[in-house]
Every structure is written in C-alpha cells, then in structure tokens.
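Supplementary notes for students who missed Thursday's class. We covered one full example, reproduced here. Read the sequence, then the structure, then the short commentary at the end.
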Amino acid sequence: MTTGRSPARWRGTRDFGPSKFGRYPGDRLQNTGRRADLLGRSLPAAPGADPAHAIHDYLAAGRTSSARALAAKAMVLINPMDRAGEIVWPTDGRAC
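Structure (token representation):
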C-alpha cells in the first residue's frame, strides 16, 4: 500500500512481462506480454488496514455508482508484493 493520499481516481496500463497468452497484436512494440488495465480508487481505510478488507468493504457496501460498477469486475491485489495475485473480489475466488 502507498502512504498518503492518491488521486481520487486513476487509470493506467502496465505490461507485466511475458504471458502464456502471448502478446496482443494491437499493443505497443515495447510490451512483451499482455497489457493489463489498472484502475485506482482512494478508499477510506486506516493506515495499515488490510487492503483486501478495505476493497471488499467498499465493493460490498455499493454506496456509490463507482462501487457498483467496480463490483462487476474482478479485483486482484498487485501490492503488497507478497500478496500479488491474491483474488480479492469476488470473494468466492472466481473471476467475474
């Protein structure tokens, strides 16, 4: 987790390296694998709070249109590194 506040919302893309699915032909030549879209959102959580619980609580409450829209997507931790790849949403471990 980062310290301090992040922008309220952000979107980015990252290339996480070689992929068993190969490279998407429409991606930039610098990409070695499949590009992943990243969505960021600032959530009300105490410093040191479990990131999976913060995300789950936000999505499960569904108080905003953003929360409801994001709940239709799968959420996977990429940070902290020791938990990278952990499926956070949906909670049954299946992708949407």
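Commentary. The longest helix spans residues 51-61. The radius of gyration is 15 Å. If anything here is unclear, bring it to office hours.
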